[in-house]
Amino acid sequence: MTTIRVDQLVPAATSDLDELTGDPGQADAFGRDLSSIAVQGFEVVAERALTAPVVAWFGESRVAYDEKATQIANQHRTLTENLQAVARTCFAYADTLADLKWERDGLVSTHQHLVATRQTLLNDITAAADETEPLVVRTLQDRATELNGAIATFQTDYADWQQRVTANETLMRDAFTRLDEVEEVTAPATVDPIAAGAMDLPGAPGSGATPEQVRDWWNDLDAAQQEAVIAAYPDVIGSADGIPADGRDQANRVSLDADLADLEAQDAIGALNEDERRHLANAEATRTALQNADSYVDPTTDEAPGGQLWLYDPTAHGGDGAVAIGVGDLDTADHIAARVPGITTDQEDAPTLMQEAINTYQSTVYNGVDGTVASMFWLGYDAPDAFYSPATLSQGRAEEGAEAFADDIAGLRASRDPDLGPAHLTAIGHSYGSTTTALAASEHDLDADDVVLLGSPGAGLQNPTAESLGIEGDVYIGRNSRDVVGVLGGEGAIHSPAAQLGFDPSTDDFGAIRFEAEDPSRSWHRGVAQHGLYFANDSESLYNIGRVVAGDGDAVNEAEHSYDPWWTTPVDPEWDRDPTSDESGRSDTQEDE
């Protein structure tokens, strides 16, 4: 019989895999304590030092006091900055340690499977020692080849994991050893030399590099460099187009943790002003939304796809904030949903937006999909603050958001591993976000395969038809007949739009694919409540959204378009249809068919 080689596993036993004894929670708590000490100490010392004990105090002694007070305040400011830098490192270390522990569990499971598979194959080879039948020998050889490939992959993954463990430990150790002398603590803050060196390499964010060049720069860094730049430059890495979603997520979590630690410490001593309180509220809302994404368990697989904080800027847009969070792996998913919300939304709405992104994910998976899924909400523009504000009645905010959304989607596309091939990406615009999404497509070459517009007040003045959006795939429309926002757009030549946001995309003249989006809770009149139900569980709308995201648009339940007879008001055939609320979202008529 031909000799069949079966590779050894390294390590030979599961117990030999390195144990990780650190506690991410304790590391995070220590970072928060450091930040609290730094912030509260600076606030107290600086306030006392810079406040003269006697109001009517002049002369050389007052000048000397002021100079010394300023010197003390500056020293404490430096001390605060150094301690906060260490705190950020603690947050980065804790997040990475949690990931490494989770990855180790996967490595242990894989190792156990490979050990069992290897032993079974060895037993079969021994039993067939005298076998000369070519088919039997070839089958054993094929099994050995497949197993050896899996073992080699495991060994590579294990080596990479060990490298990340070492890099994470080194990052934490170096952060403390750089500040283990009084002179170092009070000296001006310096950046980790590993991080500084990495940011000087060609392709680094902020150097004018393209997203593709930034991606290559990131992938060329070793584990120690990646960990270092995340800890030292979280704001830069967390917002850089071309950085994979996993890297952006790690960096943005460091920024979020640092914000929460600093602001909550200041809040505890009553030192927050109005803007800072808004900043804290945005950070707290983001934490809640991210926790919801992290804890979500897919009921169809009993697996947790995990959350990714893709964008985090709590002071953007005058304090309204900017945030994007996904559930599922945006780096590797076969199907991605990117939703743009609309009127009245800001960063404090992140928990609600996250739940609706989770609902979209669940609908896509539950009703069947070929491949993996990720669902993200993107609030990277300044949405109008009220239904009847002047900003809602013009497309200025939508034009600004359209460019930002198109750029961010291009960055998301560019960060993907080219070997995976492009994902099927569906851009979903709701409310004023539908105008934003439509303009991103027609004016800024939005790189989406399909577009879904929900409760739209208009698809933009530049877009009289679905074809004008320039999407290679299809444009889908969901409009609840009782949605008051959905009738703001124009319906024809006679009935011009109430708001300058273009034509209603649910009309027959627009030419998109309209799907059913009615809700059983509707009443006899239009109102605002129906405007917020497009992502409700077990709804007609959510079912159809899930079909489009899954790349199965042919399965949507189509609805008749609205139309505008010149002699009367616009007509919506969906007004008289009885809506459904079953899990599939299919109407009774369609079920019978």
Q: Could you characterize the architecture of this molecule?
A:
This is Pimeloyl-ACP methyl ester carboxylesterase/uncharacterized protein YukE. It comes from Nocardioides zeae. The chain has 15 helices and eight strands. The chain is an alpha/beta fold and 593 residues long. An eight-stranded mixed sheet has the order 1-2-4-3-5-6-7-8. Helix 12 crosses helix 13. The longest helix is centred in the N-terminal third of the chain and has 68 residues. It starts with 23 loop residues before the first helix and ends with a helix. The C terminus is likely disordered.
Round the Cα radius of gyration to an integer and report it. Answer: 29 Å
Biggest sheet character: 8 strands, mixed
Point out poorly predicted stretches.
Answer: 583-593
Count of DSSP-assigned helices: 15
* First-last Cα distance: 61 Å
Protein name: Pimeloyl-ACP methyl ester carboxylesterase/uncharacterized protein YukE
Organism: Nocardioides zeae
Task: Provide a concise account of the structure shown.
The protein is of the alpha/beta class and 593 residues long. The protein has 15 helices and eight strands.
Task: Write the topology of this structure.
Elements: H1 24-49, H2 60-127, H3 134-177, H4 182-186, H5 193-199, H6 211-220, H7 223-232, H8 234-238, H9 245-268, H10 274-295, E1 307-313, E2 322-327, E3 335-340, H11 350-366, E4 373-379, H12 396-414, E5 424-430, H13 432-444, E6 450-454, E7 475-478, E8 513-515, H14 540-549, H15 588-592
Parallel strand pairs: 3-4, 3-5, 5-6, 6-7, 7-8
Antiparallel strand pairs: 1-2, 2-4
